[in-house]
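SAMPLE LOG
Freezer: B-3
Tube label: C17
Construct: single chain, 237 aa
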Amino acid sequence: MSINEYDLVIVGAGPAGCVVAMNLADSGLKVALVDKADLPAEKICGDALSGTVLTVLKRLPGNCYEEFLELKPKLPSWGIRFAAPNGDLLDVPFVLEKKPETPPPGYICRRKIFDGFLQQKVRDLTPFSMTGSFLVKQILREKECFLLKGENKDLKCRMIVGADGAHSTVGKILGGFLLNHKQYCLGARAYFTGVTNLHPQQFIELHFLEELLPGYLWIFPMSGDLQMWVWEFYTRR
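STRUCTURE (predicted):
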């Protein structure tokens, strides 16, 4: 089995891993970005992009923010709608005084499209390698280095960045993070068409249903044929 050596391996090629990679573009380090999925990948609970995301994009090199504004398909989102178990609605706009020149405070974009955009920016702006379908099975310490063992090849590096999400393999192996079943949540997603009565300003919706409490249901308006994104979120009682 071959072993490739790097200064740094970033585990996880989602937004966090891509942002780390782009910020290290001029570092002179030899960096590898790996992900267990075939890239770009789908991601549950990732289609809403907040103002914080836009702030980060503005700070990235290579006109990331300007190119994101041209990315399609996506929708601007101007607020959030809360629906109580009794059906009462509360609309909370993200901008109190919206003017024609006011930029959207957030967007709704399929996560696979957004991740693919960031991954392409990493390819364009950095000399780093990016590999999908690399499942980290073990991480071993070898003196001052780490050995990341995959199915078909191993990677050796001096430093690791764990950007592989809530169920981080890096966190479990190196940080000893264990799943707390008392706080465990499950998300399920589906796309629908033909949905009506959405807010005219593409408010995302948060529904609290009696039979799901303390869980809840998200509804995200989408562009194109996929008019709505639904995510059901259950909390273990």
